[in-house]
Specification:
The complex is a heterodimer. Chain A is an alpha/beta fold. Chain A has helices spanning 40-48, 70-75, 93-100, 107-120, 122-126, 137-149, 167-184, 195-201, 219-224, 226-233, and strands spanning 2-11, 14-24, 29-34, 55-60, 63-64, 78-81, 155-159, 187-192, 204-209, 212-218. Chain A has one domain: Rossmann fold (3-Layer(aba) Sandwich). Chain A is built from 10 helices and 10 strands. In chain A, helix 3 (93-100) runs parallel beside helix 6. Chain B folds into 2 domains: 2-67, no CATH class; 108-381, Orthogonal Bundle (ABC transporter involved in vitamin B12 uptake, BtuC). In chain B, the strands form 2 sheets. Chain B has a two-stranded antiparallel sheet.
Chain lengths: 235, 401
């Protein structure tokens, strides 16, 4: 479904990605784990078109999206939940969710999806007239994920959904991610520092180090891997 | 009792401080004719009493705000108002009375007053236009008067060179306003906040200086004179033209309100607001930021362009001096004072900013001081403006709730 081939991304003169290749199959949950500054977010931004790789190619559904702008990529069915939530603080919850469906024209389906996400996160239904900025951190993350789901993406890019959240909330959010993957068949590309949680729900994983992929395997195998255990799982 | 004493002490210190501050200006007066110094000690007393009293009130109000008293009161009060305002009967009778007053107004008062109100209405349109850029787009624009100048000069120059009438110039002014909006939009696409403010400020000055120095083309600082007032089939008398311009201004205000209301509910409007709230998230939602920003500038500038044409038709004389930074700032003050993003707020703000100095001519020297004080007080006690924006409650695909 998504094939990233040997991409190099730079910030000015600093090379953040040194030849990343990975592929994501339809219906999978793929996780990309790694330490701070390894290039996880950059990989994600390169896919979603916020950053453009200097060389290499990104193919989504047989189409080259390497140099497409982010709004074109969204319209193809790739939706990103940016790191640090980035909800619209002044818009209400409903308006936030509605923004997720910005590029969609099928009103009835949008309504159905709205009901679906409100069912996933009942707290959002309860607060739907509140402005986004009044939500707690966990609720904002839920809103950010729901908003991305409103775009009905085929590929959902999640950038550190666990960032700064209480373990219980993290648990809840990861359960929902699994549920969306199973119920909607949404392919999920998950970037996480919380390798433990990420590997638990993912099918396959990639380990990123200094802008390069150093290891890839089934998530369960990675969990057993001694190096991964030492470096990322802290066990 | 103890608290009262400490309060008094604080106010006393403030008052002393103000006495020191204002001493050189308000007490000492040099009489240059017979080289004597006049000591106006009475002034010092007034300053002392005034500063003491005001600082007392100031602290009281801060305290009240801290306790949140005002909020509760005002929300109960607002509830009453909304209930009253949503009453259908009241709406109809209120609106029809307003319409009647608006229509009859120019025939009931002296035409001098009509001119003033027309200026205020023009300011309302400017405010509404700037409100699109600031309130919806969230882009701080300090050179808005440049678009105003573009509109005015497009009529002035079109008349000067081709002898074209007002009604041809009006749409042209709108279009050239929008074009200049795009011109400023492109270079500032990547800027935000303070940097954007600086660049737009510079843009405003560039346009003004261009108009001033391209004397061969624009007639420079001497301006363009004897631009005809709009004609209603035939040439109108001064009085007739004033009334006519009043109705043109009213029509433009209504048009602006209508368009902005539609914009608010539209996808484009929502995109602008999303961009204001969070650019990264907006991008992630598939909003084309380049397009959204350019749209914001163009949509905002259209109105200034049109009002510019009206201004040229109203005053019959334009020169670059009418489009200084001060003008941009006054429009900004109207928007911020009234309530950023709120249509009724901006309308009220524009009326306040234009009519108060007009009817309190005696205080003309203190005008800037008053606006400064008003802005400081507002930003502390009511940062969202006099009439803040009320967000609509609605559900996706299902209309209003």
């Amino acid at each position: 479904m998504l094939k990233v081939d040997n991409i190099h991304t730079y910030y000015g003169n600093i090379q953040a990605l040194k030849g990343i290749s990975l592929d994501v199959e339809q219906g999978e949950i793929i996780t990309l784990i790694g330490a701070n500054g390894a290039g996880k977010s950059t990989t994600l931004m390169s896919i979603s078109g916020v950053e453009t790789p200097r060389s290499g190619s990104i193919i989504f559904d047989g189409q080259d999206i390497t140099h497409k702008s982010s709004h074109e990529i969204v319209s193809m069915g790739v939706c990103q939940v940016p790191e640090g939530r980035h909800i619209f603080p002044q818009l209400t919850i409903t308006e936030n969710l509605d923004m997720g469906a910005y590029l969609r024209n099928d009103k009835d389906e949008v309504k159905k999806d709205l009901e679906y996400v409100m069912d996933l996160f009942p707290i959002l239904a309860k607060r739907r007239h509140q402005s986004g900025g009044t939500l707690s951190g966990g609720e904002q993350q839920m809103l950010a994920i729901s908003r991305a789901l409103m775009a009905r993406p085929r590929l959902l890019l999640l950038d550190e959904p666990s960032l700064g959240l209480a373990p219980l909330i993290v648990q809840q959010i990861f359960e929902i991610i699994t549920r969306v993957n199973q119920e909607q068949g949404t392919t999920i590309f998950l970037v996480e520092q919380n390798a433990n949680m990420a590997l638990k729900i993912a099918h396959r994983g990639y380990v990123l180090q200094n802008g390069m992929i150093v290891k890839t395997d089934k998530a369960s195998a990675l969990m057993e891997d001694q190096e991964v255990r030492d470096a990322y799982l802290g066990v | 009792m103890n608290r009262l004493l400490s309060e008094a002490k604080k106010s006393l210190i403030t008052s002393l401080w103000f006495m020191v501050l204002t001493f050189p200006l308000l007490v000492i007066k040099v009489n240059t004719r017979d080289n004597t110094v006049v000591w106006r000690w009475m002034n010092l007393l007034w300053v002392a009493i005034g500063a003491f009293g005001l600082s007392w009130i100031w602290r009281r109000m801060l305290e009240r705000r801290e306790k949140g008293n005002t909020r509760i009161q005002s929300s109960a009060w607002r509830e009453k108002v909304t209930v009253f305002a949503s009453n259908r009967k009241f709406q109809i009778s209120g609106l029809s009375t307003l319409a009647l007053v608006v229509v009859l107004f120019p025939f009931l008062v002296k035409f001098y007053q009509v001119g003033i109100v027309t200026s205020a209405l023009m300011f309302v349109i400017l405010g509404l236009g700037l409100n699109i850029v600031i309130g919806y787009g969230g882009l701080l624009h300090l050179g808005y008067a440049a678009f105003y100048a573009v509109g005015a000069y497009s009529y002035g120059l079109m008349y000067l060179y081709w002898g074209l009438p007002f009604w041809v110039a009006l749409p042209f002014g709108a279009v050239s306003g929008a074009l200049f909006g795009l011109v400023i939009g492109f270079p500032v696409l990547r800027l935000r906040g303070d940097y954007l403010a600086i660049v737009t400020l510079a843009f405003g000055e560039i346009i003004r200086l261009l108009l001033e120095n391209l004397s061969g083309f624009t007639k420079g600082p001497e301006g363009i004179a004897q631009i005809p007032r709009p004609a209603f089939f035939t040439k109108l008398s001064l009085q007739g033209a004033t009334t006519y311009l009043y109705f043109i201004a009213i029509a433009l205000v209504l048009l602006a309100i209508f368009v902005i209301k539609r914009l608010e509910d539209s996808r484009v409007g929502r995109a602008l607001e999303a961009m204001r709230d969070d650019e990264i998230a907006a991008q992630a939602m598939g909003i084309d930021l380049t397009k959204a920003k350019l749209t914001t500038f163009a949509l905002g500038a259209v109105w200034a362009g049109m009002v510019g044409v009206v201004l040229a038709g109203k005053t019959t004389y334009i020169n670059p001096g009418s489009f200084t930074l001060m003008e941009s700032v006054m429009i900004l003050v109207a928007v911020v004072l009234g309530g950023t993003g709120s249509i009724p707020g901006v309308i009220l703000g524009a009326f306040l900013v234009t009519l108060i100095p007009e009817y309190f001519r005696a205080l003309a020297d203190y005008r800037m001081l008053m606006f400064g004080v008003a802005l400081v007080v507002m930003s502390i006690f009511r940062p969202q403006g006099i009439i803040p924006r009320v967000r609509k409650r609605y559900t996706v695909g299902g209309g209003k709730e």
